Recover the amino acids of this structure.
């Protein structure tokens, strides 16, 4: 949502500042500094929401790890293999489609796209989020 509001606010803010605080009350440098501070604050609010979402995911993973610890080796193996099996199975079906010109139905294609987006996109986000978080917090 912020990615929609931020450009709008950045476009509207100079006009508002010109009307409320004319040039004799606020210099161009002060106006630019104010607009930069506003943009940074909006981006910070957006990042706090994203960080809360990843913290929720992390707590869910911790809870899942505790649930897995209650099971045996077989159930642990099954819970660990589900996501890679779906992702690699979908990738294999697409490779078969490309190599042998097999036509995949549109419903199955939608399922495959969803599986691949969640598998590879989710893994990518999981890997880069700690780096982004550390860079933003300055660690």
């Amino acid at each position: 949502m912020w990615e929609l509001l931020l450009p709008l606010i950045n476009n509207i803010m100079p006009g508002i500042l010109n009307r409320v605080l004319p040039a004799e009350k606020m210099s161009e440098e002060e106006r630019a500094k104010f607009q930069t501070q506003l943009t940074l604050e909006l981006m910070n609010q957006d990042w706090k929401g994203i960080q809360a979402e990843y913290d929720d995911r992390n707590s869910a993973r911790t809870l899942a790890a505790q649930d897995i610890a209650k099971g045996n080796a077989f159930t642990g193996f099954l819970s660990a293999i589900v996501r890679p099996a779906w992702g690699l199975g979908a990738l294999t079906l697409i490779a078969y489609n490309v190599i042998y010109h097999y036509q995949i139905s549109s419903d199955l294609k939608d399922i495959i796209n969803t599986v691949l987006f969640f598998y590879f996109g989710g893994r990518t986000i999981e890997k880069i989020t700690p780096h982004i978080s550390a860079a933003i917090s300055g660690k």
About this structure: The chain has two domains: 1-70, 72-139. Helices lie at 2-20, 28-70, 73-100, 106-137. The CA atoms of residues 85 and 91 lie 10 Å apart. The radius of gyration is 24 Å.
